[in-house]
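anyone seen this seq b4? input:
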Amino acid sequence: MSGSMVEFPVNGKSGSGYLAVPECGSGPGVIVIQEWWGLVDHIRDVADRFAAEGFVALAPDMYHGESTSSPDDAGKLMMALDIDRAANDLSGAISFLLGRDEVTSDTVGTVGFCMGGQLSLYAACENASVGGCVVFYGIHPNVKPNLTALQAPVLGFFAEKDEFVPPAAARQLEADLQAARKSADITVFEGVDHAFFNDTRDEVYDATSAATCWSRMLGFYRKHVR
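predicted toks r here
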């Protein structure tokens, strides 16, 4: 199964992304938000995996055509991200997905990894059309989600050995969400590192933890995105 690149309106301009539709032709909508590398094959594969499970998945291109395999360049791309433009891109992607005939849900799920994890939470705080928010070890120093505006429940996955987002940061997020009286389920997986879900990175990928996250995420979306 494979998707295709699509374009969608963003504040009078144009955005693009990778759209994957299930073989049955319809399903609930999910927005898949990239790591700091860009819209790379791994993110497209995650969208395809969602489609195989019956979801209509859209992965917006947050870097507008740029991607890299260099950590130094990825860091530069992440820090150069225009947050206002990113917010508009995500809003446009959500509206586009909900407007498609293939999407059967009244809301969408959001999920992001690394940089995208923080953007997933940010999008959920900015948009009431998000019915369920999943965060994988989210980080971006310039992205500040407004938790008071959040309506969606949050499912968070973090790593014990993560130097970018240490367990203390995950617990602080959990405490902040609880203080704001939001629904949050945060798990710190023991013995794994940042990006443990990424099966293209042998040095950090953990198949057992990734499979657990995938199963829990699907159940979460099937409950909250309908």
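The longest helix spans residues 207-224. The two ends are 23 Å apart (CA to CA). kinda curious what u guys think
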